[in-house]
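Design request, tokens follow.
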């Protein structure tokens, strides 16, 4: 385990409670501190600026999708790092065609994602 990972704060928002539990267990095993939310509005009301090293957002959620949540979070903390998790390439393309055309494809994690791939992706994103 990389020692620099220990204590890094991650927020995960996904409406699938089984997935958020899986992500939390996996990431905590590697030393991350993880807050999980299954309701985007609850995640938004609990968001703390200058606290999270990375926010991972599911794109397709009821009430508020990951893009809307991202926009709201960035208003609270413009420098927070965020990435998106999705099972569909369609949402990535839709997102890129809209107002966030400057976002890099590396900010998208494709479901299903295994532990090693998830850790590698997170390490890459938070080390920049």
């Amino acid at each position: 385990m990389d020692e620099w990972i220990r204590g890094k704060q991650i927020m995960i928002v996904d409406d699938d409670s089984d997935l958020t539990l899986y992500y939390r267990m996996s990431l905590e095993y590697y030393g991350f501190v993880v807050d999980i939310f299954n309701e985007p509005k609850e995640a938004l009301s609990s968001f703390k600026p200058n606290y999270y090293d990375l926010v991972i957002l599911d794109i397709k959620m009821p009430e508020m999708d990951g893009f809307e949540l991202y926009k709201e979070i960035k208003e609270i903390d413009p420098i927070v790092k965020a990435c998106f998790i999705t099972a569909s390439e369609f949402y990535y393309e839709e997102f890129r065609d809209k107002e966030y055309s400057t976002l890099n494809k590396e900010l998208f994690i494709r479901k299903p994602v295994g532990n090693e791939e998830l850790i590698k992706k997170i390490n890459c994103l938070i080390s920049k």
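Comment from the thread starter after seeing the answer: thanks! Residues 17-29 form the longest helix (13 residues).
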